[in-house]
Amino acid sequence: MAFEGVILDIDGTLVLSNDAHAQSWVEAFANYGYEIPFEQVRPLMGMGGDHVIPKLVPELNNKEGTGKAIASHRKELILNKFVSQLKGAPGSRDLVLKMQESGLHLVVASSASYEELDILLKIAQVDDLLQELTSSDDAQASKPASDIIEAALKKAQMPPEKLVMLGDTPYDIESAGKVGVSVIAMRCGGFSDEQLSGALAIYDDPSDLLRNYDSSVLASK
Question: What EC number(s) is this enzyme filed under (predicted)?
Answer without folding.
Answer: 3.-.-.-
